[in-house]
Amino acid sequence: MTSYYSVTELPGNRAHKSQLDAIRTRYEWAQKFCMQKTFLEIACGSGIGLGLLANRAESVIGGDIDPLVLNFARQHYATNEKVDIMELDACNIVLDDESVDVAICFEATYYFPSLEKFLCEVKRVLRPGGIFLCSSVNS
What we know:
Low-confidence stretches: none
Strand content: 15-25%
Shape: globular
Number of domains: 1
Distance between the termini: 23 Å
Order of helices and strands: HEHEHEEHE
């Protein structure tokens, strides 16, 4: 398994103000779509924005393929009943068909082995009328 530990924003790591502003902007944008919705973040990493989403969502699932990185999210959200953390492969999402209202993926699609498979999986897990939000600034 490939680890994404070295490229993931982790608690305690130093970050430039512009990096923090970009993170905050993405999650504030996503938060507008999650009022009383079932929400999935694919490649959530350490779960840096899950709490903000959980403030408005009915429930939030944070998934990532790297269990080492997920440990940060599991520890932080251990007592938050609205947040579920799971190991998740973006090209083989282990959720039922039409099980979420909103799916997001920020700054991770360039790591996936197949963008086509990923998009098919997102379409499969979204309920009719569901929303997919994606941000990808790196090539």
